[in-house]
């Protein structure tokens, strides 16, 4: 970032340009037919999952909010990243391919403003879609469960928007690295595969070959470094954020892992998880800014 | 003082030297035609001026000062591969670019009226023809009332009517005091509207000057076509005139080349002879000849 960019940090004009770009991104993506189809599918799926999750899968067991959220967490674990990737992977590369990035860059816009404007516009759209989808789901839930604890549900919505933001940021970074949309989408899908599937096999292998998975099941807390490594996966951070605040989800996680007692270390706190998610959003954006600044538009 | 002055510009892409110590100067209020074969470095030069790619060496000065980020608001740009936001309307595109430059809210409407876009403000850009999109592209370049317009192949791929419209618009903008730097492959149109041209080949500026001065500089000859009686005997006469070069018969006419200043003397001699001259066509050297002569020497 050069000196003139620093001078612009708090300028009103800079924020006007960022918001103008954000508005453009929001409108432009919202008019994409494929995005609209995705939104409709997402809302319908949320409706179905919230309805069936709350209305009794196994008798009374599912008739509460937390169980419904547990059910929806499994869905959002993939849906939020997919939405983030769909919005992010083409955000830079497709404009570069079409030539509109060249035109945009000829305007008095700092490269950081381009990244910030695009991210804010797309994240707003993603937040709106998740908000609408889970909002409708929440409305259904509130009619089906006896005690609707909105704070828990809000946290779930907030966490999902943050997770979508992380994947949006990551796929935007990928979009500044690759020169074709095809490569960018492939790399983004690989990231999804890595964090949502492959990671668990890797961590299982690491645990098994070091301190032994069995000891964790028996209630022995793994070493600190094991928890620290988990910070490198935003999905784990998101899940932990929810698990820390939703006892049923935590219980469900323990049952899934075969654990009998909770093994979270002290550093796993709600605030620390939120900060780590913010870092997960910020670092790829900073890399994107660096990449686009170094980019020759030819 | 030049309005836009480039000195010693160098740029490479890997092992390819795209620009080699390129010098260029554009005077205020002129239309400057930037010519060169494909891959000569025209677009690279224009992109460096716009700050889209960085140069390895060299300076670019606008109105005597090194060009900076803030100057982007004062330069209008039309890229060769124009891509506007297709899902947005003409009005939304214009307003978007207007907001980026911090212009008055009335500016898009004014430009839309000037560029014959007012009736289609609500149309999505993806539904427009290439010609109308180019008009919109040129309109967006004028947002913010820039001093300098940098247009990369502005008439490329357009039908003759729109091409004419773009040329007329460029002349109109020049009459309003705008300075225009544009690249083109269509030499005829460059000759028609440009005050000066710069010819680039292999990343190096071969020459830049007024077209008439270039023909003198390059000693390009006029081509004379005579329709004359007794053509074979007349050819012998023309051959006897020392300053009439390369005389020959083409399609029943005598064709020869000569220096501009000898033209009248030669014609007087021919007319004074017994051969009746029915018609004389004087073909002055055009930009194409200048271009071919210069670029052939370097390729």
Q: What does this entry look like structurally?
A:
- The complex is a heterodimer of chains A (298) and B (299).
- Chain A is mainly α and 298 residues long.
- Chain A has one domain.
- Chain A is built from 14 helices and no strands.
- In chain A, helix 7 runs antiparallel to helix 14.
- The two termini of chain A are 22 Å apart.
- With 299 residues, chain B is an alpha/beta fold.
- The two termini of chain B are 33 Å apart.
- At the A-B interface, helix 2 and helix 6 of A face helix 1 and helix 2 of B.
Strand content of chain B: 25-35%
Based on CA inertia axes, which overall geometry of chain A fits? globular
- The helix/strand order of chain A is HHHHHHHHHHHHHH
Radius of gyration of chain B, in Å, reads 24 Å
Chain pair sharing the greatest interface = A-B, 27 and 32 residues
Helix-strand category of chain A = mainly alpha
List keywords for this structure.
heterodimer; A: 298 residues; mainly alpha; 0% strand; B: alpha/beta; 10 helices
Topology (SSEs and partners):
The complex is a heterodimer of chains A (298) and B (299).
Chain A: H1 3-8, H2 12-30, H3 33-54, H4 65-88, H5 93-98, H6 100-105, H7 111-144, H8 150-177, H9 181-209, H10 213-217, H11 224-230, H12 234-245, H13 247-257, H14 270-294
Chain B: E1 4-13, E2 16-26, E3 31-35, H1 42-49, E4 57-62, E5 65-66, E6 75-78, H2 90-101, H3 107-114, H4 130-141, E7 148-152, H5 160-175, E8 179-183, H6 187-193, E9 196-201, E10 204-209, H7 211-217, E11 222-228, H8 231-240, E12 245-250, E13 253-258, H9 263-272, E14 277-283, H10 287-298
Parallel strand pairs in B: 3-8, 3-9, 6-7, 7-8
Antiparallel strand pairs in B: 1-2, 1-4, 4-5, 9-10, 11-13, 11-14, 12-13
């Amino acid at each position: 970032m050069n000196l003139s960019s620093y001078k612009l940090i708090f300028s009103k004009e800079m924020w006007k340009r960022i918001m103008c770009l954000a508005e453009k991104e929001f409108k432009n993506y919202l008019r994409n037919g494929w995005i609209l189809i995705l939104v409709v599918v997402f809302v319908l799926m949320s409706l179905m999952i919230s309805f069936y999750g709350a209305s009794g899968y196994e008798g009374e067991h599912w008739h509460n909010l937390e169980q419904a959220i547990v059910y929806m967490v499994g869905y959002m674990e993939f849906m939020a990243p997919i939405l983030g990737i769909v919005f992010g992977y083409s955000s830079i590369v497709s404009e570069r391919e079409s030539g509109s990035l060249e035109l945009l860059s000829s305007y008095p816009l700092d490269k950081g403003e381009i990244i910030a404007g695009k991210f804010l516009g797309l994240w707003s759209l993603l937040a709106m879609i998740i908000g609408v989808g889970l909002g409708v789901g929440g409305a259904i839930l509130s009619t089906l469960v006896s005690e609707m604890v909105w704070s828990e549900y809000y946290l779930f919505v907030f966490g999902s928007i943050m997770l979508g933001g992380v994947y949006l940021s990551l796929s935007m970074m990928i979009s500044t690295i690759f020169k074709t949309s095809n490569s960018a989408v492939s790399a983004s899908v690989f990231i999804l595969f890595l964090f949502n599937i492959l990671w668990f096999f890797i961590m299982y292998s690491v645990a098994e070959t070091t301190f032994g998975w069995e000891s964790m099941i028996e209630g022995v807390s793994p070493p600190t470094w094991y928890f620290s490594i988990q910070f490198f996966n935003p999905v784990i951070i998101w899940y932990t954020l929810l698990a820390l605040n939703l006892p049923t989800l935590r219980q469900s996680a323990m049952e899934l892992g075969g654990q009998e007692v909770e093994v979270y270390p002290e550093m796993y706190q709600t605030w620390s998880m939120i900060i780590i998610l913010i870092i997960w959003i910020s670092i790829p954006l900073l890399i994107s800014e660096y990449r686009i600044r170094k980019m020759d538009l030819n | 003082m030049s309005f836009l002055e480039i000195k010693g510009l160098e740029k490479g892409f890997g092992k390819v030297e795209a620009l080699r110590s390129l010098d260029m100067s554009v005077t205020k209020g002129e239309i400057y035609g930037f010519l060169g074969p494909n891959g000569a470095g025209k677009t690279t030069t224009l992109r460096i001026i716009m700050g889209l790619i960085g140069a390895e060496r060299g300076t670019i000065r606008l109105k005597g000062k090194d060009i900076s980020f803030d100057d982007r608001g004062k330069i209008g740009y039309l890229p060769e591969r124009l891509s506007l936001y297709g899902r947005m309307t003409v009005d939304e595109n214009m307003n978007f670019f207007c907001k980026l430059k911090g212009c008055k809210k009335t500016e898009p409407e004014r430009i839309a009226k000037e560029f014959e876009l007012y009736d289609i403000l609500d149309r999505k850009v993806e539904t427009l023809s290439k010609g109308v999109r180019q008009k919109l592209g040129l309109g967006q370049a004028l947002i913010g009332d820039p001093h300098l317009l940098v247009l990369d192949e502005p008439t490329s791929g357009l039908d003759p009517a729109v091409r004419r419209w773009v040329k007329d618009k460029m002349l109109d903008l020049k009459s309003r005091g705008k300075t225009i730097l544009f690249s083109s492959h269509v030499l005829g149109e460059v000759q028609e509207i440009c005050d000066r041209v710069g010819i680039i080949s292999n990343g190096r500026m071969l020459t830049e000057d007024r077209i008439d001065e270039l023909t003198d500089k390059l000693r390009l000859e006029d081509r004379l076509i005579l329709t004359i009686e007794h053509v074979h005997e007349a050819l012998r006469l023309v051959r006897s005139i020392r300053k009439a070069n390369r005389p020959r018969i083409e399609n029943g006419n005598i064709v020869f080349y000569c220096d501009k200043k000898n033209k009248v003397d030669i014609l007087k001699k021919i007319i004074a002879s017994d051969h009746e001259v029915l018609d004389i066509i004087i073909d002055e050297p055009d930009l194409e000849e200048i271009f071919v002569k210069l670029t052939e020497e370097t390729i």
